[in-house]
Amino acid sequence: GVLAGLKERGLVEGRDYRYTIRNAQGDMATVSGLVDAAARESDLLITFSTPTLQAAMQRVKQLPIVFNYVGDPIAAGAGTTNESHRPNVTGTYLVGAYDQMLPLIRKYLPNARVLGTVYVPAEVNMVSQKDVMEKAARHEGFELRAVAANAPGEIADAALALVAGRVDAICQLPGNLTASGFPAIAQPARRARVPIFGFMSSQARDSVLTLARD
What we know:
The protein has 214 residues and is α/β, with parallel strands linked by helices.
């Protein structure tokens, strides 16, 4: 999307800019090193996710940082308001469509009472967004049960705990760890015949692929 946006603005790779992609492959322990390497070679950093934004802000004080794929930059430490923020940090963020999702679940599951979700306490964006989703759930008459997962290996156990607790559906809160580990949520939900609602189109594709392999 970023590359498409540059092209739409008439910028040409090789003439107006060059770019390098660095991917930690979900291993947050390597992010600091990637940020340091990028800062030595770049005029501007573009971060994808809250953890990479936080790492960039900790280690880069002068270069411009443009963030995206962030749910709550204020909670991440980018500033105190949209207008009052670090002078070298800007970007775009979006809140999950909770006010649209919860009525949709009510429409499809009119008798549902309890929804489950897996969240990561170390991800400030998930903690912040969980509060927003809980408020939207209460408005629609749902109880939201959130089970914590602190590492990739804990995602499947958290999902198993949800289905064992007899939730009526899983509404998966957007997050970095749970996005990469979504198949581990889809498998136990499918076996327990618990429907899943998600906010990312990639999760629908991952779920189909997981079920096809299962």
